[in-house]
Structure formats: C-alpha cells, structure tokens
C-alpha cells in the first residue's frame, strides 16, 4: 500500500498551478508542489484548471483573426457534476440555462449542449456516460433522469412518476442507479427498459443504514458508495442494497466530514470525498482510515472554492501526462468541479515514483 503517510503532513499541504492538455493555453510553472508536502513521498500533483474555451482551443494567429474574426469565449459558469469518457469531459452547469459544457480534448473543441423544446433541462446536477456513449443527466428541478445518445439526440426520460429528486446517477452493465435525495434512498432502474426495479435501503431514521440526504454515488467492485450529506458520512452497500459499513462521521476534526458531496473510488478502493464545507477532497482507505486531503479554502491555484464533484479517470492520461513531474508516473486523473472562483474545473494527478532502471 503506497499511500502511507503521517497525520502531521496533513496540516501543511499547498498546491500550485501548471498545465495539462497539449492545447490548454496556460503556462506551466517550473516548480511542482505536491501532496503531501516534502519530505514525504508525493502522491497527488495539481496539474491545471479549465474555466473557459480559451483554456482549450489553439491560440488564433493574427492572420486567422483578420480573416474569420476572433473566436467567441465560452465560459464555464457554475459547474456541479462532471464525467470523463473517450476524451470528452461533460460538465453539468447549473447557471448555463439548462445545459452542459462538453470539452473534446482530442479535437480541442469546447461546446455547449443545451437541449431545446420539450427536452430542455432546468437544473442538471450530475451526469454519466456509459460505454455506448449514452448520456444520462439528473435534473433535480424537473425530477427526471434524461437520456441522450452520443449525437445528443433525446432517447427518453424517467423518474417523475416516483416523485424523485435525482442528485446523481451511475450506470453499470445492467442497471441505472440514481441517488434520490428527496426520498432518502437509491433507486435502481433497468438499463434496457428504464423501468423502476427496486430501491434501498429499506430503513427508518435512526437505523445505521438510513440515508438522510444521499448527494452522490459511485460503484466500484460491485459496491455502491454513497455520500450522505444529511448525516455527514459515507455509506457502502452491495448492488442489491445490503448495508456493509459506514465510513467517517459528521464533525470538524481531521477525518470528519461536514458536507460530503462528490465521491469517487479508485481500483484499490481508496475513497475520494468532496467536502463542500472544508472545501477539500479527503482520501480514505477501504478500512475508513484517512490517508490524505488536498485542496482547501481558495487562496491560489489548486485550492478549491465550493467544490461539488470529484471523478477518477484511468483512460485519458495521454492528454495530461506531459505536465507531470518527470520523476513520477501518472497513475490516474482526478477531476474536481468548483462552483466559484477562477478555477472551475481543477485536474490533479495520482502519481507514483518512477522505478529506477
């Protein structure tokens, strides 16, 4: 287990800014600050942030500007949820007017996706893209989960009949799991028919497995990890809803949570949790022990400002590897959405020391 640290390192962690994508238009810095602070072995490196189309598109030449005019800058307004798949980053923006930003790192394109007419969104919080490129969007105001194909064509919507308040969604090979913050539960739907199948937990307030306000969820190794903002902890279930355990608790000490929101789990079952109150991301191992936290109240690049979502991605490293400290290898990416501040989407890397030849 290479995440071993000591608690005193948790008190003195800062990050700096450098850039990541081949065409992200931000200058890198020579110094790379990592988590935890020296002399501990670095585990997390801050890579870059994205706040508008200017951070993605190739810089226009003076000649191009004279011919076609200057490109319009498209900002990220107030991101909440995000998801990365096949070189594209999907960002649910609650201030965009019912839509998402979609960033294509392969083509260096930045676009808005705003469905019109009867399929128009009102308050999209989170999204998920499955292996068939179906886009699932939770709209908590319309009380529906919307489904679009890879071209942005509407397929269906569901959930309104159950009076749900969908705050997050995750899709596996058979089912669609929806965090229902209004009914204090996880609703499970058939992936092919979109029909409701079951919910969990079947419990009452005061029970160990009761969900007071499920904010976000993720699935790893056939386990459902739920951030419960109502109780300030993380609850873990099987796919069928059997309660397994609770991690952390409400409080203001190291390792406690106050407003847990976004949650992600790596392949080793290290659990990443956004705390909107502490404005950081805390990392726990599978036993529930705190390993590290990073971020903190915004003062400089790499800090966080009302963070909402964290996502881990193993498949799109090539767009960011060139900005990793040369003494380290990039293991996976960590995306964090910030609702305020100059850095709307911050990207970090989980790094490991290069093996000596």
Task: Summarize it.
With 357 residues, the protein is an all-beta fold. It has one helix at residues 62-68, and strands at 34-35, 44-50, 79-85, 88-93, 99-104, 109-113, 124-129, 135-139, 144-148, 154-158, 166-171, 175-180, 185-190, 196-200, 214-220, 223-228, 233-238, 243-247, 260-265, 271-275, 280-284, 290-295, 307-313, 328-338, 345-353. The strands form 6 sheets. Strands 1-2-25-24-23 form a 5-stranded antiparallel β-sheet, with no helix packed on it. The chain has a 4-stranded antiparallel β-sheet with strand order 3-4-5-6, with no helix packed on it.
Topology:
Elements: E1 34-35, E2 44-50, H1 62-68, E3 79-85, E4 88-93, E5 99-104, E6 109-113, E7 124-129, E8 135-139, E9 144-148, E10 154-158, E11 166-171, E12 175-180, E13 185-190, E14 196-200, E15 214-220, E16 223-228, E17 233-238, E18 243-247, E19 260-265, E20 271-275, E21 280-284, E22 290-295, E23 307-313, E24 328-338, E25 345-353
Antiparallel strand pairs: 1-2, 2-25, 3-4, 4-5, 5-6, 7-8, 8-9, 9-10, 11-12, 12-13, 13-14, 15-16, 16-17, 17-18, 19-20, 20-21, 21-22, 23-24, 24-25
